[in-house]
Amino acid sequence: MQIAIVLFDRFTALDAVGPYETLGRLPDAETVFVAEETGPVRNESGNLALVADRTLAEVPSPDIVVVPGGPGQTPQMENETLLDWLRTADATSTWTTSVCTGSLLLAAAGLLGGRRATSHWLALEQLERFGVEPTGERVVTDGKYVTAAGVSSGIDMGLTLLGRIAGDEHARAVQLLTEYDPQPPYDAGSPEKAPAHLVEELRARSRFILR
Amino acid sequence: MQIAIVLFDRFTALDAVGPYETLGRLPDAETVFVAEETGPVRNESGNLALVADRTLAEVPSPDIVVVPGGPGQTPQMENETLLDWLRTADATSTWTTSVCTGSLLLAAAGLLGGRRATSHWLALEQLERFGVEPTGERVVTDGKYVTAAGVSSGIDMGLTLLGRIAGDEHARAVQLLTEYDPQPPYDAGSPEKAPAHLVEELRARSRFILR
């Protein structure tokens, strides 16, 4: 079993590392970080770099594809090398997954048409423009496509898919090992729960956040 | 304001990236990944590398120190270069923090004696041997020392400290932006909540997990 986590310029680190630390603990699986070129790939802030150990071309048929998001998604949505790889990898994958605006890349590659999927709450409208049925759920499974909401939701996605593949028992063991017993100090993690003025403020800034 | 996140061989990725993605969004702060040498630093599985952009020597006095954990902590607990740097950095830091077994490094550096602190649930006894008062809480603040429990708890720690420094409003905005509205598919994230046989199994394996 091979899990490929895709990196690209200006990705969001937790989008990639959440699924890595959960789903990546699948028994007998190899996880590999891939990008157009090997070497460090910088996140949106530029002060974090994860290393891509293999090129996209070197990993043509992973069993599981994980696509993180990032605020600089627009250029990637026109990156034909990346979109072609997503289409090729998806043709033989068992699961094709995304976190955050990673679903916009899957949609831009034409993989989510007519399906239910999710994304960062600020990107749901954009997702709809690709003929996708957006939902406000945190983790959405439609066939072999598993999409997660913003940034931190990749942890929930990773555990959910881990349970589906390796069984509830193994997923619970990984939850315990990663001590995933969340106790956020605030209750503002979704647009339904956060103060309305914060939601509006982030919506107003989202033109910049998502570009 | 400078935030230094310390990397070392066999660190746990989410320990570092959880605080990075939350606390790292402190306004007007620079976050820098540091290690003994610059360049890629591999996690415990070897299939993930984060890049250290500066050496420890180049960042002698960060305002906030973040120390992740990892299962290969024992050699680091005898790494005098790292422990010396922790002592030096701590002498002028505003906050000294850890996630998971990172607290064992702070304790080994002599920084937590007589204080309340936490660690990965499998490492609490080891913490006690350093004269630290271990607690089962997820995030513990004692003076300027903020320690968090296992792996994923760094997200809660990061948001907690962010609120303390930048105010609740900013921390809520970061929680909303990172869509941190956790919905774990299981309720097994702590030894109190997980099935007893899983707790015992991980305890039995912990000799290997923690080395």
Automatic annotation (TrEMBL), chains A, B:
GO terms for molecular function: lyase activity. This is DJ-1/PfpI family protein. It comes from the Bacteria. Its EC number is 4.2.1.-. Keywords: Lyase. It comes from Streptomyces hokutonensis. Pfam families: DJ-1_PfpI. PANTHER family: ARAC-FAMILY TRANSCRIPTIONAL REGULATOR (PTHR43130), DJ-1_PFPI DOMAIN-CONTAINING PROTEIN (PTHR43130:SF2). Coiled coil: none annotated. Residues 2-162 form the DJ-1/PfpI domain.
